Amino acid sequence: MATLSNKKIAILTADGFEEVEFTKPKAALEEAGAAVEVVSLKEGSVRAKQGDDWSKEYPVDKAVDKVSADDYDALMLPGGVVNPDKLRVEERALDFVRAFFEKHKPVAAICHGPQVLISAQVVEGRKMTGYKAIRQDLINAGAQYEDKEVVVDQGLVTSRKPDDIPAFNRKMIEEFAEGKHDRLHA
């Protein structure tokens, strides 16, 4: 397995992320040696959901307005229904996401996480997947939707649902280890 011992990864999330789509990728990144920081709209903590039910709180390392894509080697976006809706209306979160694409740094998003990428206007022309409920949103935004457990397009890794997490984690770690990717467009 690839090593991420020299990599610093941001996980951008807000309240309402699907717990397993945060905890399992975070643990996989840390197991691969990455330094992982949780970035959110505010300092303090963020609260997870397990399906329709609220779950545990997790500490936030930094508020998004106090960080830059320059501080990190890659970005991961967990899913959940509430979380992306909170992030996609915050310009500072969208600017943070766009900067990873402008700098050709790898990004991984699972389930509803790609909704943030749609709002950041970085999906046009890219091969992607996501939860079935956002399939049409991705297509309407110009993505080439593929119904697969994991899709990789020049450093962008996307997956559909919690069942896809093992494949998502493998590809995410591989792409994050490779680092910057040449992209035709941001």
Characterization of the model:
- The chain has helices at residues 19-31, 82-87, 91-102, 114-119, 135-140, 165-178, and strands spanning 8-12, 17-18, 35-40, 44-50, 53-60, 62-63, 74-77, 107-110, 127-128, 144-145, 150-153, 156-159.
- The protein starts with 7 loop residues before the first strand and ends in an 8-residue tail after the last helix.
- Helix 1 (19-31) packs across helix 6 (165-178).
- The strands form 3 sheets. It has a 7-stranded mixed beta sheet with strand order 6-3-1-7-8-12-11, with helices on both faces. Strands 2-4-5 form a 3-stranded mixed beta sheet.
- The chain contains 6 helices and 12 strands.
- With 186 residues, it is α/β, with parallel strands linked by helices.
Radius of gyration: 14 Å
What is the correct CATH architecture? 3-Layer(aba) Sandwich
CATH class: Alpha Beta
| Mean pLDDT across residues | 95
Tag the structure with descriptive keywords.
Rossmann fold; 3-stranded mixed β-sheet; alpha/beta; 6 helices
Question: Layout of SSEs?
Answer:
Layout: E1 8-12, E2 17-18, H1 19-31, E3 35-40, E4 44-50, E5 53-60, E6 62-63, E7 74-77, H2 82-87, H3 91-102, E8 107-110, H4 114-119, E9 127-128, H5 135-140, E10 144-145, E11 150-153, E12 156-159, H6 165-178
Parallel strand pairs: 1-3, 1-7, 2-4, 3-6, 7-8, 8-12, 9-10
Antiparallel strand pairs: 4-5, 11-12
